[in-house]
């Protein structure tokens, strides 16, 4: 088969059910379908490099994708656990939507003042959870350079947050006064 589309169609027809079964043994139905689809996307991209027999290779790709999903879930749960541990009952009772909106707006405004490279360095470390070696590879620099960029980006973010916080203090005061007027009128 010289036509890549025919070769891929044949590969898909022969192995889709086996890859899906493999994924279903390790994940719920929705995730298993996603992993199966992504496995065949990888296969399509690497069609010229597929080894014979293909099934073990496809199952290996699916296994790696499932591991990435599992790691991602563990990181998300760890973040939820940390937030929960730092929250008190008072935080839940006294939760004020307006204050959280102001906090979010303050953080977004501070981030908007930073250079794109600073935001990228911090996102790779915090959002994507990459270790410095991998983040440096993404940014195309050495690990040492990445660590310096990340340190400087965090310092600039702290300065920007302090500047934005002083601006938002006035907004909070106005919001508090508005809530007070509303409470008095009610």
TrEMBL record:
Q: State whether keyword Transcription applies.
A: yes
Keywords attached to this entry = Sigma factor, Transcription, Transcription regulation
InterPro entries tied to this protein = RNA_pol_sigma-70-like, RNA_pol_sigma-70_dom, RNA_pol_sigma70_r2, RNA_pol_sigma70_r4_t2, RNA_pol_sigma_r2, RNA_pol_sigma_r3/r4-like, WH-like_DNA-bd_sf
| All residue ranges annotated as the RNA polymerase sigma factor 70 region 4 type domain in the record | 108-157
Region listing for Disordered, in residue ranges: 161-186
- Keyword Transcription listed? The answer is yes
Q: Which residues form the RNA polymerase sigma-70 region domain?
A: 11-70
- NCBIfam families annotated for this entry? sigma70-ECF
In the record, the note on similarity to other proteins reads: Belongs to the sigma-70 factor family. ECF subfamily.
Return the protein name. RNA polymerase sigma factor
């Amino acid at each position: 088969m010289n036509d890549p589309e025919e070769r891929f169609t044949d590969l898909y027809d022969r192995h889709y059910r086996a890859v899906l079964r493999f994924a279903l043994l390790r994940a719920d139905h929705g995730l298993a379908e996603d992993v199966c689809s992504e496995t065949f996307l990888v296969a399509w991209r690497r069609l010229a490099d597929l080894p014979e027999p293909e099934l073990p290779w496809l199952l290996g790709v699916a296994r790696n994708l499932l591991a990435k999903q599992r790691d991602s879930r563990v990181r998300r749960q760890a973040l939820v656990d940390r937030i929960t541990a730092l929250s008190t009952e008072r935080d839940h009772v006294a939760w004020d939507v307006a204050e959280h909106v102001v906090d979010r707006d303050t953080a977004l405004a501070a981030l908007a003042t930073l250079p794109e490279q600073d935001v990228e360095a911090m996102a790779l470390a915090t959002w994507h959870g990459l270790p410095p070696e991998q983040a440096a590879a993404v940014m195309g620099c050495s690990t040492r350079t990445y660590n310096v960029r990340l340190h400087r980006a965090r310092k600039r973010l702290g300065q920007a947050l302090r500047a934005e916080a002083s601006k938002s203090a006035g907004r909070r005061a106005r919001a508090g006064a508005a809530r007070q007027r509303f409470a008095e009128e009610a």
